[in-house]
Amino acid sequence: MKNPKYITKLDKVSGLSKTERKNLKNITRHFSFRSNEYYLSLIDWEDPEDPIRRIIIPVLDELDNWGDLDASNESHYSAAPGCTHKYKDTALLLVSDICGGFCRFCFRKRLFMSQNNEVFKNIIPGIEYIRDHPEINNVLITGGDPFLLSTRKLEKIIRRIREIDHVDIIRIGTKMPAFDPFRIINDKYLPEMLSRYSGTEKKIYVMTQFNHPRELTRISLEAIDLLHNSGIMTANQTPFIRGVNDDPETLKDLFNALANAGIPPYYVFICRPTLGNYTYALPIERCIEIFDIARRLCSGLAKRARLAMSHSSGKIEVLGMNDDNVFFKFHRAAHLTHDSNVIVCARNPEAYWFDDYDEAIAECLIDEAEDLIEIENHQM
Fold first, then answer.
1. Delimiting residues of CATH 3.20.20.70 domain(s) in the chain
2. Nearest CA among 175, 116, 169, 117 for reference residue 142
3. What is the pLDDT of residues 39-89, one digit of tens each?
4. What Cα–Cα distance (Å) separates residue 64 from each residue in 185, 266, 278?
5. Superfamily of the domain at 74-379
6. Among candidate residues 145, 235, 237, 154, the one with its CA nearest the CA of residue 192
7. What is the Cα–Cα distance from 127 to 141, expressed in whole angstroms?
8. Which H helix or E strand runs over 268?
């Protein structure tokens, strides 16, 4: 399969019955569908619960009225067109509003809607903002998927960032090694280009998103090897997804497969309460149970992931729980007074998000509101 054909209409998905296509069309009017021949070939169409199918094929439950399009208030941390600055030393550049496939549980599905105004094709304002803020030492290029840009266009972005002395690490967030590894294999200039900007002292990291061990195919591993052999570092992050990786054996297999391929498991995220995502989300305390069992089944190199949630007030690590309490810690806090704070909450098995633990977050949300007011005043 040299260059897999991309598919944006359910009518072109041969594995679906006519009835399924008809029933699911209403879903795609709200949340777009996109995949390709390669990724669809990984689905066992005889299994209606197939995890790869669940990642990419719409389901009727996506119309459940639950969540917000911007569940973590990312837009409130916009510092320049296409540039987000939430944490002191990290900036995000949103450079693409398209992906190799549209994950059904995507927390940025708003970017694929017609009213999207967060992705800017002109990255100069964002680059200038980063240049003017010497506290920023690492930049995440994301979207959408940056590997959907041409290699020439991606190089222009990377080159401009590398010209900023105080930026050390460049990260590229992509699911293309899973969705379409041929993007890497068939463009020999892409790994070569990345290698020229990933030096001995300043590395480029490709942040992969493998959600299920079956995505780690021979072709995907070949693409990862090309990146590794070009001096690119990799690490993997995935959300917990109901029906995909929500059992200890599957998560253990994913961690082990990643470690075997030299891709450190980095984060397992609590699924954000994004509009349409209730059918994919799991209660936090169920995630803790699965995560702890899976890690106990792994060797040290495979058990390096952190369980976390990207809350509007910061990146919150989920440390664990006992019979009475759940323990959280601010891994990265938007409000500096919260950095490394440990938060103890009474157990709530119905909690899907940090906000569902009432009393412990009241002060955090007040401080966050003050931060947002400061950001908005700065932008005026």
1. 74-379
2. 175
3. 999 999 999 999 999 999 999 999 999 999 999 988 889 999 999 999 999
4. 39, 30, 7
5. Aldolase class I (3.20.20.70)
6. 154
7. 11
8. strand 265-269
